[in-house]
What does this fold into?
Amino acid sequence: MLKKTCKCGKLINYNEKCCSDCAVQKKEQTAYYDRYKRDKESYSFYRSKAWLDIRAVVMGRYNGLCLYSLFIDGQIVPADVVHHITEYSKDKSKALDIDNLIPLSNGVHSMLHGNYTEDAKRMLLGLLDRWKKEMN
Ligand SMILES: [Zn+2]
Ligand SMILES: [Zn+2]
It folds into this structure.
């Protein structure tokens, strides 16, 4: 097999772009950059006026209560965060959709994010429905 040198100086097969070490390094750099770009984007989103406005509307709509604590635990607990049921990173078109937003306490919020399944999303949507049906 014909050989050539990788940019790091290692000898590699002619049909390869770079050696395996460089390939791993490049992949890590790309992953890091993607993450950095995503973080920057969500950082500015969560500081935008549009978000702060809708966040205030959601808090007002549900009296600032954690709906999970209310319906699942039967407890009155003030909400700390407004959570995107379909995550912001997954679908930006739902970022400001009031039917995709739910107020939660910090404890419930991190518990949910620890194992965020499709079932968990359905359960949260069900809590919004219960509020509509039972609290109006
Ligand atoms: Zn290399
Ligand atoms: Zn969340």
Remarks:
- The chain has two domains: 18-47, 49-134.
